[in-house]
Design goal:
homodimer, 323 residues, four-stranded antiparallel β-sheet, 15 strands, 22% strand
C-alpha cells in the first residue's frame, strides 16, 4: 500500500504543496492556497507574535513555538496582560507542566498553586470579567467587510447541516469564530491558545497558557478565554510525552520541559524575528480553498462530504521567505 | 493559576475519575460514566482486540497499543484480511513509518512501495470493493435495538444544529456512526484506525494501517475504510516525533519505530490478554453521559454549549481490573 491519503495530506501541509501534474486535475485545497496571488496573503505584524523558546530536545535540537495573538475585539485585556508578562520576561525559567493526550499542553509556573513557592506576577495585570469571553456581535455593516456573510465560503460552512455548538460560524479577519445575533467569540480549534483559570468567577491572568493538541474541545468556547493560536512549531508541544498524573500533569520535575524564554517578536533581534502571513479570509482564494475543504474533488477522493466543520478548515498560514 | 479545566479533564480521563466532593454537585460526564452500574458496561471480546507491541522507548519502557476492531456490518472484509495478517505474524518487524501532526500515525511495510523490496503479503487476502466503505442502512426495527433513535442522547446529537458532514449521526453498538436513508458508515474520530490505500479504485488490503491523532478528518468518511479504534496506548503513537518528509514520513530509517508484533489478543498467553469494556451506548448511563457532554453543567462551566460534535462524545472505554 502506498502513501495513504496522498492528496489529502498535501492539502493539509502547505509547506510542501504538490502541484497538479495535469492541468485537467482538480486542485486540492493546499494547491489552491499555494497558488493564491500575493495580494491575497496578509502579513502578520511581529508585534502580534509571541515566540516561545523551549530548551533544546534530547538531541540538542532547538524548539521554537510561534503564537499569533488575536486581534480586537477578542480577549484584548488578557492579551495586554500577556504582553506585560512577556516584557517582564516572566515566563523565562518556567516550564511546560502538563500534556494531556487529545486535549492540551499547558505551561507556566509549575509552583503556581503553592503560595509559598509561586513566582510573583508583574504588577499591573488586569482582572478580566467573564463577559469578555465573548465580544459584542459586529454590526451588519462591519460584517460585510470582515466576514462576507453572503460569500460562498460562509454559506458552505453555514449550510443546512450547521455546527453543533453555535448558531452561526464564519471567518473574521483570518480567525474561525462563531456568533449569534448578540455576541461573537473565537473557537477552540486545534492549535488554539487559551488562558488557564480556576473556578468561576476567576478568568485567569494569562500567566498560565495552554494550546489545544487534540480534537477541538469546543465545549470550552465561551467558558474560557482564547488569546491566539500556534502558527509554527506546534509539534514541539503535541509530540511531548503525556503526563502520567491526573489531568496529564507531569509527575516528576525532571519531566517538565523548560521554557528558555517567551518574547513578543519585536523584542528579538531583527534577524530572529519570525515572519508569517495568512491567506485573507476575505479573498476569493480563501472562498475557493474553503469550498474545496468542504467538497474534496481532487483525485484521491471518491465522495465529497458536502460540508466541513469549521475547525477542519484551518486558515492557511505560512512563513514569509526572505527574498 | 491552577489546573485549567479541572472538571473537564476529569471527564475525559476515565482512568482516574474524581468523585464529586459534594452530593449537591452536578456530576461531570466522566463521573456519570464512572458511576454507571456494572450492567451498563459491555465486555469487549479478546477476539476483537488487536494488540500492537512497539519496541521499547528510549528509556526501555514497553509500548503497547490496543485496537478494538469494528463489529458487523462495518468493514468486515478488510477486518478478515487484518485477522489473516495478524495470524501470519506479518507485521512483526515492520514499523511506524509516518507521523503527521494533527492527522495520522501510519504503520506497515516501510518498503511497500518498492516492488523489489516489498514484504510479500499472505495469500488469500480479499480485494474489497469501494461500496464497502459504507453499509446498507439498518432497518428501523434493528435501529430501535441498536441506536435508540428516539432516545435523548440521539436527539441531543441530532438537534437542529446538526453535523457538518452527514444528515444523521448516532451511536450504534458502541460506535459513532452517520447514516442517511440508504447507507450507514463509521466516522473518522480521534483514535479511529483505517486502511491506507492508493488512488481509487484501490481500497487497501489492511496491511497498511493508520490511526487518527488529531482533529477528526471527517472528510475521509466514506472515502477510505475504517476498521477499528485505539482504546489503549494511543499516546505511544500520538506523542511520536513528527516525520519531516512530505506527508510526515520519516526521513531516516532510524527514525521509524519498530513493531515487535501485532496479534489478535486470543493468540497471546492468557495473562497478557487485555480486557476492556465499553459503556453501552444503549444504556441510560450513556444517555446521561452524552447529555452531559453536550451540556456541561458541572462546576467549571459557566455556559453549556447546547450541543456536541459526535467526535467530542467519546464512548467511555476502560480496562477491566482483575478481581
Amino acid at each position: 500500500m502506498k502513501h495513504l491519503l496522498l492528496t489529502v495530506v498535501t492539502a493539509a501541509s502547505l509547506a510542501v504543496p504538490a502541484l497538479a501534474k495535469d492541468a485537467a486535475e482538480i486542485p486540492s485545497p493546499g494547491e489552491i492556497a499555494a497558488a493564491a496571488p500575493a495580494k491575497d496573503w496578509v502579513a502578520i505584524a511581529p508585534s502580534d507574535l509571541l515566540v516561545m523558546q523551549l530548551a533544546p530536545d534530547t538531541k540538542g535540537k532547538a524548539r521554537r513555538v510561534v503564537i499569533q495573538l488575536m486581534p480586537a475585539p477578542f480577549s484584548q485585556e488578557w492579551i495586554a496582560n500577556i504582553r506585560k508578562l512577556a516584557a517582564a520576561h516572566w515566563w523565562d525559567g518556567t516550564s511546560v507542566n502538563r500534556v494531556q493526550d487529545n486535549y492540551v499542553a499547558q505551561w507556566g509556573d509549575p509552583h503556581g498553586e503553592e503560595a509559598a513557592k509561586a513566582k510573583p506576577l508583574p504588577t499591573g495585570l488586569t482582572v478580566v470579567s467573564e463577559d469578555a469571553y465573548t465580544a459584542p456581535a459586529i454590526t451588519s455593516a462591519i460584517r460585510v467587510i470582515h466576514a462576507r456573510p453572503g460569500s460562498k465560503a460562509m454559506q458552505l460552512l453555514q449550510q443546512r447541516r450547521g455546527d453543533a455548538y453555535a448558531e452561526f460560524t464564519g471567518f473574521i479577519a483570518g480567525w474561525p469564530t462563531a456568533y449569534d445575533t448578540e455576541r461573537q467569540w473565537p473557537l477552540h480549534c486545534y492549535g488554539a491558545v487559551g488562558v488557564g483559570r480556576n473556578m468561576s468567577p476567576d478568568t485567569g491572568s494569562g500567566a498560565e497558557l495552554y494550546a489545544v493538541i487534540g480534537h477541538a474541545p469546543r465545549h470550552l468556547d465561551r467558558n474560557i478565554a482564547l488569546v491566539g493560536r500556534v502558527i509554527s512549531g506546534i509539534e514541539h508541544l503535541s509530540s511531548l510525552p503525556r503526563g502520567t498524573e491526573a489531568l496529564g500533569f507531569y509527575k516528576e520535575e525532571a519531566e517538565r520541559v523548560p521554557i528558555t524564554s517567551i518574547r513578543i517578536a519585536t523584542e528579538l533581534p531583527s534577524a530572529e524575528q519570525p515572519k508569517f502571513e495568512y491567506l485573507s479570509t476575505e479573498s476569493d482564494s480563501f472562498v475557493r480553498y474553503a469550498d474545496a475543504r468542504a467538497n474534496r474533488r481532487d483525485p484521491f477522493f471518491i465522495r465529497p462530504a458536502g460540508g466541513a466543520d469549521i475547525c477542519n478548515v484551518p486558515v492557511p498560514v505560512r512563513a514569509i521567505l526572505a527574498k
